[in-house]
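Dear colleagues,

As part of the handover before I leave the project, I'm documenting each prediction I ran so the next person doesn't have to rerun anything. This entry is a single chain, and its sequence is reproduced below.
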Amino acid sequence: MVDVIIPGEAGKLHAVYHKSATDIAPLAVVLSGNPRAGYHMNDRISYALFRAYMDIGFSVARFNYRGVGDSEGTLGATTDNMIDIATVIDWIQNQNEDSDKIWLSGNHIGAWYVLQAMMRRPEVSGFTLISPDYGVSDFAFLSPRPNRGLLLQGANENEDAQAFGPHLTHILKKHAQITLETIHIKGADEKFSTPAELKQLYNDVKAYVGRENEENKLL
């Protein structure tokens, strides 16, 4: 994996990139949580997601939104961050023109960004959502977009988060024709603080994405 600088709307975006040895390997972009809550591309969850895709054989990137770490600019709103996400997706696709599949993976507010990006990018093959921010309640961006993905939560997340999982599953199925497979990691909260919890997150994402990507090859 290498550090790369991607030209963005508000200046340079700092990213970490791994290129697969296979030219036609699928792609993935990891979206971190809200930087105002301390999330960034090098936090434990973002790194675990990155490694899961990398170890399956994907070409994968993770990055800091504008105003975070070495990414230039000031902290942006959702609209600004979505522009940064589109910039990184375009960049990794331009680096891998022979690849025809791309996955998105997001934690916390990044999970919401995954869903919004899917509505705008028909080429997205699949996705993984990690402990979505349950304080978000605006689903107006959804439209029919048949797909399937993974929702992964800690079994010890608070009651509001636990109730939000089934609610999100219902909303996505009803309004967007999106099917979620849900996994709860025993003993974990939304921080996945222990090595064992983080390892289980890594294993579950790796297993799901590997299986789904292999199944899609048969279609």
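DSSP finds five helices and eight strands in the chain. The beta strands are 2-8, 11-18, 27-31, 59-63, 102-107, 124-130, 147-154, 178-185.

All the best with the project,
I.
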